[in-house]
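Can't attach files on this board, so I'm pasting raw text. These are the components:
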Amino acid sequence: MNAYTYYPGCSLESTACEYDASVRAVFQALEVELHELEEWNCCGASSAHSVNPLLALALPARNLALAQPIGYDLVMPCAACFNRHKSADHALRHDPERRKELEEIVGFTYQGNVAVRPLLEVLTVGVGFERIGERVTRPLEGLKAVGYYGCLLVRPPDVTQFENPENPSLMNQLLETLGAKAVEWSYATECCGGGLSLTKSSVAARLVNRLAERAREAGAEAIVTSCPLCQINLEMRQSGKQKMPVFYFTELMGLAFGLPEAEAWWSKHLIEPRPLLAEIKSLRRAMVGRG
Amino acid sequence: MSLNFHEQIAKVSNQSILLCYHCHKCTAGCPVAAEMEYGPDRILRMVQLGERERVLKSRDIWLCAACETCGARCPNHINVAKVIDALRMEALRSGVTPAEPDAAKFHKLFLFVVQTLGRSHEASLLIAYKLWTLNLLADMDSGLQLFLKGKVPVLPKTIKGRGQVKRIFVKSAEAVAKRAPSSANLAPAQEVQ
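---
Top answer:
Structure tokens for the assembled complex are below.
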């Protein structure tokens, strides 16, 4: 498949605008069509399921209804949006009673012809490591990073159907494909407390700093994520003198592809990533010089 | 109507709460257990024992980060986060003052914005949240930084189908109210006191 329907989600229109920009740039570079779903609505994210179980399924179901006639798979960059839409699709597919209720509330007939897929899986499995590798013109040699998945991409595993929920590997394979060093660590799917970032910031800060410390201890200089809620929480709640930049995996793809747009993404970060990136470039120049 | 507490929560969450044999695996992996009063395994036990007031008044049900680690590792396949969601709904429905009122306020405001616009809008949400919680000074630095970096658009984006979205809110509330009188109250703008 070389075309997808794109659901950016609310974060990518605001606090994660560089994620949105890098997604679009990377798809263009890989010559894969990405069509934004028109008229999409917020999925209710982490709030709806705390208040009303039906609302939490019906809000994303409306987006599924909009995506059905187009027929392309629905790609979700945000882990929370993916989780909600996948949960709705799971209920519609496997629970006839719930399906009837949701069809009535949203006013549509579920066809089940559209797969809800996380962006990381679409790029690494759908498009594939081979095509990504072919497009790399500036390998990220010297960059040592941990892959971080967080919660909502992998759990609950019976709904997300996302590779090994305790030890996923797509992000590490991607980092190696881009020429970076994927550092092994034990916290790739541990929670960063993003859902509590605003309401219990002290708890979120404790979880974030634990992750940053463990990443540093493992020998990493950066954290790479696919979730906008993790990214902002990890950058906003990190404390201490030495802060570790947190990248979206698509930003690193754009960088390794040599896309000129990438320059505009770094100034959007709360933790300045350019000193670290300058080191990669100098390493690369040194390599070129020696070659 | 005559369901006892654990039956009622089992019904709303669609989870077999009585299957829990207290292996504590959920609490062992819970990232916020250290901040909690009881931890997820004891919350489940208290639900089993019908300790309604104690559970609903506990701050634990609002501290849960919904990371789903507990459910993913439960040997009895109990999705504990869904049980916590059901407890939150029951606390709101029965007018129990949430032990962590900010979390409840945030969810209500968030959903109010989505119900109105069809999408979220950070600037409106954050300002309203700060005013409601009187927590005006927290995160001023990072908030300003985000604003200066152009990451919090001042004007909200809305969609033509916001009427449809509003209808989804109304119908979902009606359906849940009809299904089980004891399950949930859904009006997002309802006061939490």
